[in-house]
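User: Hello, can you help with two protein structures?

Assistant: Certainly.
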Amino acid sequence: MCVRAEDEWSRAVVVGAGPVGCLAAISLAKMGWKVDIYEARPGRPPPSPLPWSTFHKYCIHSVDRALLNENLLREASTAPNIRLFFKHRDCSFTCTLFAPTTEFDRLATPQEFLSWFRTHFPDALSILGEEKLLYDYANNPRSALVTIKAKPYHYKDRCVIIGDAAHSMVPFYGQGLNCGFEDVRVLRALLQEGGVTPDVALSELGQEGHTDSRLSNALSNYTETRHEDLVAICELAMYNYVEMRHSVTTPTYLFKKALDNLLYTISSWRNPPQDPVARVASSTAPFPTCRPSGWIPLYTMVTFRPDISYATAKKRAAKQSEILTTTGRLGTVLIGLTALHWTLRRLGLVPYQR
């Protein structure tokens, strides 16, 4: 991150021109840094494996990720202190297929694969084309979904990793790109809090390899304060897969979810929440709401509350889940006792009193 130029200004080098890299470059440029963006993939970065991503404020919008990336690149290219380096252009699209390993293992021949694809994705087959689909299936690598929980995220004042490089997660919470954008916001806040500026003269740097102590401390602070949040969202993403796969079909889950939403409605009615975006914008802290008030479902905290960190949301949700579980058990016992009482009355084993 810290490259000394002859004029003694620091230059930031961003490796990766995806949405997070472009946003990081724009953020640094607005702070006065000279920025170079390097991208090894062909042309301007192709879209993510998913054709859309979710961005959350008060409602969920589907956004064309390729268009978003193009807009971020366009803004970056207009900044006089940002330079972009691309290999060459490529306007291809990507389709990613998620399936259990056992499914892939039994698709040994092209005919079996086409038959399987026709059964499960008949509408996509006509768009992709059989010939291209078979070529990609035979030549593109297959790999498992991974979760990355790295630490530290920085090295002295020289570099810091953000986005998927630091916390790749399974895509089942729709928070991967949101989390990367949040990395940029948190990093910017910590750089400003630490008084980091790009115009540091060599005479002001420490003796050990000309280290910018303020930048080094800010990046260290980023590692220490951000790690818990990133581990939390990686775990929540995996948990949400289990929830979507199985839990949503169980009566217990449905009861808890209904009670969760009811308590949230009552709490919101009694204590209307402030605009969370306005709270973030007016605060110097990355997450101004450390102790959320009232009852807030986990999904709401993660999706619609940028003022609440992932770790805080996870801890708060665990406490609320205990309350819901206890309430559910008591409710089950009460219903059981009531049913037993009425059964005994109908059998005449319990005297009827007017």
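That covers the first. Now for the second protein you mentioned:
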Amino acid sequence: MSEKWRLKDLSGEIRPSLQELKSLRYLDLSGNTFEGVPIPNFFKSLKNLQYLNLSYGGFSGVVPPTLGNLSNLQFLDLSGWSLLVKDLEWVDGGIKQASIFYGVAPTILLAFRNLTGSTIPASIGNFCNLKHLDVSSNALTGNLPEFLNEIKNCSSEGVLPELRELDLSWNQLKGRLPEWLSQLEKLTDLDLEDNKFQGPIPASFGIFRNLERMWLAQNELNGSLPVSFGQLSELVSLHVSWNYLTGILSEQYFSKLTSQLHGQLPKLLNLTSLLVVDFSSNLFKGPVPLPNTNCSLLYLSNNTLSGSIPPNMGESILDLVFLSLSGNQISGEIPKSIGYMRKLEMIDLSRNRGLLFGLSNLTLLHILDLAENNLSGSIPSTLGDLIAMYQKHNISGLVAASAHIDMENGTAIIKAVGQDKLIVRAKDQDLEYAKSLPLVIIIDLSSNNFSCEFPKEIIKLQGLMFLNLSRNHINGSIPQDISMLHELESLDL
């Protein structure tokens, strides 16, 4: 039944004549106002029923255990605040063996509320096709049952082989978290928060292949967070607050996480003694924040930050070496205070919304990326003042092995790998530079609206190795003395 035609606010008596619908497969009475009537016992006669949704329908009283005889049932939702379920043993009736509907593997959803004082029967482990189990916000007690020994009828190996979502939150379950949970290979959501679970988090929890959300907050867990959590490559949300966890978090814990943070960063990032500040590739919005520490590398790329660069940025972080604000929605002028950053070697402001620039004071700058900014007019002559690009330099100027600059649509993708080499990907080729070789020097002004002749000032930059002026409106002829750029390896016009 579609949402368009579903009736709401039904009330009154549900007449026994409904059981004459022998072929009925789908019955949805949710979201109505049956004013406290009990679930009719004659529902047990609807033998072909595959979908039964009674959630928040105004029903009250005890759920009849005879629902367990509906052998074809694939979906059952009894959520609500007036229904009582004395126990779940009746669930081990016929509904555990769901049949195939139109050739599609059946999806069973079990959702219960008000299971006062009940325990979870191990027999639920026999639900071979169960995909969603929600018994949250009840008064369930006891330990999590061992399902492994209960499986007798599943063709697939492993416990609850089709389970995607398991919600046992807001109960009174206790004991240790069982190892068998990690064998739920298709699990994407695990919510065990607000119970009384004790002991350490099993290291095996780090082997979930598809887990996106794990909530273990508000329990009595102790020990340290397993290092194996760093292998949860699909994890988006992890809640472990309000426990008794201890230890130190290192990079190992986040080695394969691809989660994205969101919200607005404070204008002043309250950090202490950090050389690298990296909030890149998330969903942060709002103005560009400033760290309160004089860091060396600041990564804020690939977010949705907007507004202008703070005018006092150059005064606040004088020792900055690498600045990456690419892939945001920043506009306006590059503040003059950036010129105070005499140690600045790399700037990536590509893929923003129009940044004018005057960078003549940056005597150490050797990588400049302003691609895709809708800049127009002439290319500023102040580019010729970037004296770090005049000649060869030692590659020892790079300060961190993790430093990287991604010019995905421009001339090069540069990555500092380890402490001994720098790899530049240019025109589908990987070029490797060792520390003893000249420092890589790049200018990328591609994909703007510059309309001018080839800037003669660039000829001064005889250390230039990669130059990209493509996808602009450069006109006239290429200067003959471009041959003076002896280090040039890639020229894209």
